[in-house]
C-alpha cells in the first residue's frame, strides 16, 4: 500500500522532490530549521551527519520515547 506525505514543511526546498530514502541519506541540514551550524554541532557532539543518523541516534530516540509517554507534553 503506497503512502504519501507532504514534506514541504519538514525539509528544505531542495529536498522536497526527493524520495524518503534520499532524504534519510541527506545531510541533517536538509531538515527544515536545521542550519549548517546546527549540523556541525550535531556532528561534533554525536557524530550525526545524516537525517538517518539523527533518527537512529539512541539519545534522540530515548528522548522522543519519553516525550511520547507523557502524551507529547
From TrEMBL:
This is Uncharacterized protein. It comes from Micromonospora endolithica. The lineage of its organism: Bacteria, Bacillati, Actinomycetota, Actinomycetes, Micromonosporales.
Amino acid at each position: 500500500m503506497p503512502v504519501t506525505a507532504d514534506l514541504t514543511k519538514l525539509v528544505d526546498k531542495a529536498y522536497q522532490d526527493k524520495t524518503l530514502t534520499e532524504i534519510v541519506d541527506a545531510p541533517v541540514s536538509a531538515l527544515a530549521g536545521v542550519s549548517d551550524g546546527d549540523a556541525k554541532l550535531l556532528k561534533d557532539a554525536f557524530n550525526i551527519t545524516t537525517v538517518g543518523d539523527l533518527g537512529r541516534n539512541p539519545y534522540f530516540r530515548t528522548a522522543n520515547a519519553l516525550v511520547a509517554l507523557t502524551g507529547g507534553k
